[in-house]
Amino acid sequence: MAAEARRQQDSCSIILSESCGNSPEKKGSAAYSRPGTAMSGEMDKPLISRRLVDSDGSLAEVPKEAPKVGILGSGDFARSLATRLVGSGFSVVVGSRNPKRTAGLFPSLAHVTFQEEAVSSPEVIFVAVFREHYSSLCSLADQLAGKILVDVSNPTEKEHLQHRQSNAEYLASLFPACTVVKAFNVISAWALQAGPRDGNRQVLICGDQLEAKRTISEMARAMGFTPLDMGSLASAREVEAIPLRLLPSWKVPTLLALGLFVCFYAYNFVRDVLQPYVRKDENKFYKMPLSVVNTTLPCVAYVMLSLVYLPGVLAAALQLRRGTKYQRFPDWLDHWLQHRKQIGLLSFFFAMLHALYSFCLPLRRSHRYDLVNLAVKQVLANKSRLWVEEEVWRMEIYLSLGVLALGMLSLLAVTSLPSIANSLNWKEFSFVQSTLGFVALMLSTMHTLTYGWTRAFEENHYKFYLPPTFTLTLLLPCVIILAKGLFLLPCISRRLTKIRRGWEKDGAVKFMLPGDHTQQEKTSHV
Ligand code: NAP
User: How far is the CA of 177 from the centre of ligand 1 (A)?
Assistant: First the structure.
C-alpha cells in the first residue's frame, strides 16, 4: 500500500513538475569560493568560529561580499550545514515553513525566513528535506528557475530498492529549469558540525553541468572538505547507495573470523569439556565461558594472521608458474589480496582478546580451588617443593614470545591506520607490513610451539583421537614459512624479481637485472 501510494505520489509529482511551467533557461553560477580568499589548502580552513555561532550577532560581521546560499528545510542537516557555511564565511538564508519556530535553533548570522523569501536571491540552494516532501516545494518552481539545487538526501534501504530513479534525478524531473547537483549526502550532520578535521573529508559530487559542479566543489573546499567528482547525475543512485553500505570490506573477513571461531570453539569444547564428561564423568562445563573461549581466541588470531600472508605466497607461486605478472589473478585471489588489511586487524583483535582473557585466568574461582587442592596434595604426599625446571623455562619463553608477537601485531595495526600509513613512504610501509608482519608470524609460531612443547607426541593429549588444537593451527603458518623460505633460494628469488619487473617467460619483454651479466637476455621491444 505504502509503495503504491509512493508511486502515485511520484507520478503525481512529475505531472506537477510539468505544471510548474518553468523556463528551461539556466543562469550561470556565481563564484562560491570563500570571500576574500583564494582556494588554499583545506587544512587552513577555520573550524566553526564561536564568534559566528554566538547568539549575539553584534559580535561578528559577515564580509559584505559573502556569497549568499539558500537552504530549504530546518532539520538536523540544515542546522549543521548552516552553522558550517556561516563559519566558512557564507551568507546563509534558511527557508522554513515555520521560521518563527525554528529561527532560534540556527546561528544568529543565518537568516531564517519563509521558503519563498529564502530562495529569491541565492543562486545556490541546498534542498535539505526528504524526497517525499520534494513535491511540496513545487510552488517555488518559478523562483527556483535557473538556480543550482543541491540534493543532499539519502534514501533508506527500502526507498533505494523501491525507486529506480535516484532522489537527485527525481528532483531534477520536478524542477527541469534548475540545475541539480548531488552532493554532501555522504557527510553526516555531525561531521558537518564537527568540521572536516574530525570526520570524513570527501564530498562526492555529481551532476550534468560542469559549471554547477565546479561551483559546489568550490563551496565544499571553502568549507574544508575535499570534493570528488563522481560524474553525471546518472551516478547519483550509486552515490546515494554509499551511506547505505555497512562496512562492505569487513563482511567477508568478519564472517571468516566468526566461522573459524565457531569451528575451533566446537573442537575445543569436544576435547576439553565433552571428552572428560563422557570418558571420566568429570563436569568441566564451567570451562565454557572463559577457558574454552581463551583456547579458541589464539587459534583464530593465528590462523587469521596466516591468512594475511597466504595469498601473497599463492600469488607469487602463480606468477612463477605462469612466468609473467601480466595475467590477472583469479577473482577469489584478487579479493583475498584486497582484504588482507581487514583480516590482519581482526587477527590483532582476537590476539588482544586472548591477552585480556589470559590475564583473567588467575582470577577464576576454579583456579584458586585448583591451587589449594594442589597444595593439599603436596602436603599429603609430603613433598616440600614443587619445581619443574623444564616447565618453568617453557612458560617463561612461551609468555615472552606471546608478548613480543602481540607487540608486533599492535605495530602492524597502528601503521595500517590511514593517518600513520600516509606518513610512511612505500618502502617503510612495506617493511612494516611485510617484513615485520612476517616476524610477527614467526613469533606467533614459536609462541604456539612452546605452548605445545611435547604434547603433540603424547598419546593422552589425543582426546577422542583428536589431535591437540595447536597442531591444527600450525599447518598453514608452517606451509607459509616453508614457501617463503623457498622463495628466498637464489634461483627462485631471481626469477620472481625479474617477473615482478616485467620479464615474461614467453613474451617479448626481456631484460637483464642490474649486475646480471652472466645471462644473455633479449632486450625489451616495448
Ligand atoms: P529532518 O531533521 O527531519 O528535517 C527535514 C526538514 O524538512 C524539516 O525540518 C522541515 O523543515 C523540512 N520540510 C520541508 N517540507 C516539508 C514537508 N512537506 N514535510 C515535512 N518536512 C518538510 O531531516 P534531516 O536529518 O535534516 O535530513 C534532511 C535531508 O538531509 C534528508 O534528505 C536526509 O536524507 C539528508 N541528510 C541528512 C543527514 C543527517 O545526518 N541528518 C546526512 C546526510 C543527508 P521546516 O519545517 O522548517 O520546513
Answer: 23
